[in-house]
Amino acid sequence: MPVPIRRLAVALTVCCALLAGSTAWAAGQETAPRSPTVAVAAATPSPSTSAEKQKFAKTRFVANAALAAGATYEWIWKPYKEGKFKKGAHGRKATLVKAGLAGAFTYNRLKAAVRNAKGDPALSKALAPLQAAIANLKDLPAKLRKGDGSAANSFNDTINKVKEAGKSAGANVKDKVPSTSQLNSGS
């Protein structure tokens, strides 16, 4: 597709003007006499607890819980329901490795969601009874890699409880499937 000559001329002119302007600005920065500056601390109150320091606690909780729920559904619950964890299933080894990674990712994101929930009183109160259930997920990725189906049920039950707790506190969690790179990096 041919580009009109006028458009090319305008683009070239704008690029030259930006280059000349940035060069002049940089030259002016180098030759300007520098006077000593004194840093003065601003008198702003700082929060005293980590819960007060956390901004957008509910939003961050929803994001982390959604990623955990998506990973659980996509790589743990759905393959479990399709029978891909059973001995002799096609692609079982790859499915179990993915499930183990997803389990570790889910545990990581749920721990982050619990930390985020501490910044919101309603979420903190709603998630308090689930602390033990989330902590119990720590050893389940190893069980998933071995093909233990009860681990899939534990992950799904905990995710559903977290979703319900979030909903009761006004933070609706919808599944968001993480990318494979997020799953591999754990964040």
Q: Indicate the structural class.
A: mainly alpha
- Give the overall shape, derived from the CA principal axes: extended
Q: How many beta-strand elements? A: 0
Largest β-sheet summary: none
CA-based gyration radius: 26 Å
Distance between the termini: 43 Å
> What's the number of helices?
9
| Unreliable stretches covering 5 or more consecutive residues | 38-48
- Measured by DSSP, the beta-strand proportion falls in under 5%
Instruction: Give the CATH topology of the domain at 57-169.
Output: Four Helix Bundle (Hemerythrin (Met), subunit A)
CATH first level of the domain at 57-169: Mainly Alpha
CATH architecture of the domain at 57-169: Up-down Bundle
Q: Which sequence of SSEs, written as H and E, runs from N to C?
A: HHHHHHHHH
Query: Mean of residue pLDDT?
Result: 79
Helix content: 55-70%
What oligomeric state best describes the polypeptide chains here? single chain
Task: Give the helix/strand layout.
Elements: H1 5-31, H2 50-53, H3 57-81, H4 92-117, H5 121-127, H6 131-136, H7 140-145, H8 149-168, H9 180-185
Helix pairs in contact: 3-4, 3-8
Summarize the structure.
The protein is built from 9 helices and no strands. With 187 residues, the protein is mostly helical.
Task: Describe this protein's structure.
It is a single chain. This protein is mainly alpha-helical and 187 residues long. The chain has a domain at 57-169: Up-down Bundle (Four Helix Bundle (Hemerythrin (Met), subunit A)). 68% of the residues lie in helices and 0% in strands. Keywords: Signal. Residues 1-26 form the signal peptide. Residues 166-187 are annotated as: Disordered.
